[in-house]
Specification:
This protein has 72 residues and is an alpha/beta fold. The chain has one domain. Helix content is 36%, strand content 26%. The chain contains two helices and five strands, in the order E-E-E-H-E-H-E. The protein starts with a strand and ends with a strand.
């Protein structure tokens, strides 16, 4: 999943309404296999509270989280 600098959420390059994010992620992660892992790509300009909100979704669903960064 990705959160861009404008605060737009996307999953597999498809824009997702923030209110639908948890359901979309649940469906996507279920179809991915046995190990529930959420890979997050978050622009550095996104407020920390937005990122924490997604982390709360992951915690509630017992998913492992990887926060991917772009090399300098």
């Amino acid at each position: 999943m990705r959160i861009d600098a404008d605060g737009q959420f996307s999953v597999n390059d498809k824009t997702v309404d923030p209110l639908d994010l948890e359901g979309v992620l649940q469906d996507r992660i279920k179809s991915a296999g046995d190990t529930p892992i959420l890979v997050m790509h978050v622009d550095q300009r996104v407020p920390a509270g937005v990122t924490v909100g997604v982390l709360d979704i992951a915690k509630r669903n017992k998913w492992k989280v990887i926060i991917a960064t772009r090399p300098k």
